[in-house]
Amino acid sequence: MQDQTNTPAPLPQDATLDRRRLLLSAAGLSAAALGGVALPASACARPRGSTAALPQAREVPAAFTLPALPYGYGELEPVIGKRIMELHHGAHHKAYVDKLCAAIDKHPALYSKAPEELLADLSQVPEDIRQAVRDHGGGHVNHSAFWRWMAPPAESAREPGGELAAALVSTFGDLPRFQEAFNAAGSARFGSGWVWLVWSAAGRLEVLSTPNQDSPISAGQVPLLGNDVWEHAYYLSYENRRGDYLKAWWRLVDWAPVEASFLAAKAKRG
After folding, report:
1. What is the DSSP string of 89-126?
2. Residue 228 forms beta bridges with which residues?
3. Is the pLDDT of residue 4 over 60?
4. In angstroms, rounded to a whole number, what is the distance separating the alpha carbons of residues 97 and 119?
5. CA 178 to CA 44: how far, in whole Å?
6. What's the total number of domains in the chain?
7. Residue 21: is it exposed, middle or buried by C-beta count within 10 angstroms (0-12/13-18/19+)?
8. Of residues 57 and 38, which shows the higher confidence score?
9. Crossing angle for the helix pair 255-269 and 162-172, nearest 10 degrees?
10. Are residues 26 and 118 both part of a single domain?
C-alpha cells in the first residue's frame, strides 16, 4: 500500500522563508528558529475563514501536536539519513497530525481525550471520522512513540536489562532470537505497516505486525517497541532492502523507555 500522506509542491525559497516566519511567529517562536532543522510543533494550523491570507495557529491540547524530536535530524546517521528524518518527521508525521485534527475539529469534545484513548475504543468515535482517527490518530501515536524508542548510536542503550531482558529470554530464548523473530515479522508485512513487540492482553510478550497505521492499542495490547516498515521510513537509504534496514535499526534502539513501558504494563496488569 502506498503512503497516502501528501507533500505539497515546494514554494520558491523566499516565499517559503516568509511563510515559515509567519507560522513561527504565530506559534510564538523567534525568527532564530529558522536556522534549525526541526520544525515547530504543529498546532493544527488552519485558516480562520475563507478570507484569511495565511493559516493562523490555533491552540489544541499538546497531545494533538507534532512532538519535537529528542535529537537532530542528522543524529541517527548512518543508520537513518538526515533527509529521511526531515521528511518522515516534518512532512509525514505532521500530515498525520494535521489530518487527525481536521477530523477531531468536527467533534471538538473529543479533544478532551488523549489520542491513545480514542484508539483504545474506536467505537466511541463518531462513525463519520472513525476511519480518519484510526488512520491518522494511529499514525500520530505510532510515530510519537517511534521517535522515543530511538537514540543516536553513541547514546542508545544497546541491550535490554533487568526484568525485560529476563522476559525476552524466557519468551524467545535469547535476544538474538527475539530480534530475528521481530525482523522476520517486519519483512513479512506485505505493503506498508509496522512490526511490534507488545505486552499482550494475555499478559505476555509477543511479536506481531499491523497494516497501515493500525495501532496495537486498538486490540488491547501495549506497544513496547515498534519499527516503521512503510517505505518512507527507509527507502532513500535502503531502496527495496527492507531487511537491511530492519537489521541496521537495532543500532538505534534505546531500551530504557522500552523497559519502562514493560514494567508499567506488567504492574498495571497486577
Report:
1. IIIIIHHHHHHHHHHHTTSGGGGGS-HHHHHHTGGGS-
2. 194
3. no
4. 14
5. 39
6. 2
7. middle
8. 57
9. 80
10. yes
